[in-house]
């Protein structure tokens, strides 16, 4: 842990050279107005609080047709916390009570790892966020359908990346290829000061410009970027250091008290499995959907025959986003890792895969500990 000075660097001086400052490279479109290993561990910077106060890696051609057409009638069914939206008896979107993220169908696209020999992911799933957590009572069917029609339409507009599209902009060889530094938050990557709701202003660490750790990467994607602008409101998840229900700073806190709901509760291994073999079961894998957040114990030593690992959520030290099944049918995730020197969906330092399959190299399947839907 280390202490950061609270000196403010005006955004204006950096606007010409840094994405995300004043005018992002990608302006969100208001459619309503138009119509790992131990070294991958992340760390919270210690703050003094005061009560006063190159080429694109994903390809997707805009497509007209069913994926984008405004629907006059959308029907909803609810099972547990999940509300499914259907058009002409075909499921097109899934809302989860208490979560910001909405998974929906859209134009098919292939997300490439940017590294030769690494299987790509082809998907019709798109992930956008609501301005507030979903509540089927307060967001009635009329408002819900208006939002969903707008979101489906924007999926077919060039330059309005969803969460997955944004994530792939930072991998190896991509347009915003980011590096890795332990403790580097989203504002360090951007070179901007951050004014959290539960601490004084935190200056960017100038030695970490252009670099980001795993939990900072998620904050960049879900909290800094607006993936959708609807009725003049940018869809971003509120951020803090430690406030429950917001996008907190460390991976372990994002699991324990982050936004949304837990999908796979923390466990060191499924019932009946070898101690600390975290490989998810078929039931757990089926519960984890594209866009969900997966969590790992990055400090457990698997080089010994009988590892002694942490037994609760405080042992979580790495996190990423599940992006879907790749062409080899493995559950692939994207995260910022030290060995790969930044965001990756490739296999440097261990495959970015968390299911146990023949030929999968690395310990991420064993390190898997839980999942949450933001």
UniProtKB/TrEMBL annotation:
Record keywords: Hydrolase, Protease, Signal, Thiol protease
Coiled-coil ranges from the UniProt annotation: none
Residues spanning the signal sequence: 1-15
Annotated region (Disordered), positions in chain: 33-62
Domain of life: Bacteria
Family as reported in the entry's similarity comment: Belongs to the peptidase C40 family.
Protein name: NlpC/P60 domain-containing protein
Taxonomic source organism: Polyangium sorediatum
């Amino acid at each position: 842990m280390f202490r950061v000075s609270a000196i403010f660097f005006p955004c204006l001086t950096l606007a010409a050279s840094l994405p995300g400052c004043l005018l992002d490279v990608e302006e969100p479109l208001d459619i309503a107005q138009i119509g790992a290993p131990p070294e991958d561990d992340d760390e919270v910077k210690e703050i003094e609080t005061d009560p006063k106060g190159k080429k694109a890696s994903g390809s997707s051609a805009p497509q007209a047709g069913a994926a984008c057409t405004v629907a006059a009638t959308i029907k909803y069914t609810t099972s547990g916390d999940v509300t499914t939206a259907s058009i002409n008896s075909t499921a097109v979107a899934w809302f989860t009570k208490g979560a910001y993220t909405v998974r929906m169908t859209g134009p098919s696209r292939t997300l490439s790892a940017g590294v030769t020999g690494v299987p790509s992911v082809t998907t019709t799933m798109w992930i956008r966020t609501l301005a507030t957590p979903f509540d089927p009572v307060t967001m009635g069917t009329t408002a819900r359908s208006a939002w969903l029609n707008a979101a489906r339409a924007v999926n077919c507009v060039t330059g309005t990346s969803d969460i997955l599209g944004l994530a792939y902009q930072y991998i190896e060889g991509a347009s915003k290829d980011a590096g890795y530094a332990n403790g580097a938050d989203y504002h360090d990557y951007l070179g901007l000061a951050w004014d959290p709701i539960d601490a004084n202003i935190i200056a960017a660490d100038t030695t970490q410009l252009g670099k980001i750790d795993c939990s900072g990467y998620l904050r960049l994607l879900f909290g800094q970027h607006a993936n959708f602008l609807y009725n003049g409101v940018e869809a971003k998840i509120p951020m803090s250091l430690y406030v429950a229900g917001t996008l907190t700073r460390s991976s372990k806190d994002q699991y324990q008290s982050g936004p949304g709901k837990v999908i796979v509760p923390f466990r060191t291994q499924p019932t009946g499995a070898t101690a600390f073999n975290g490989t998810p079961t078929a039931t757990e894998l089926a519960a984890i959907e594209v866009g969900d957040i997966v969590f790992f114990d990055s400090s457990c030593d698997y080089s010994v025959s009988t590892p002694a690992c942490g037994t609760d959520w405080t042992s979580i030290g790495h996190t990423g986003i599940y992006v879907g099944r790749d062409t080899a049918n493995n559950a692939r995730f994207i995260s910022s890792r030290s060995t790969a020197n930044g965001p990756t969906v490739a296999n440097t330092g261990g495959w970015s895969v968390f299911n146990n399959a023949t030929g999968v190299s690395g310990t991420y399947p064993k390190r898997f500990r839980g999942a949450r839907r933001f």
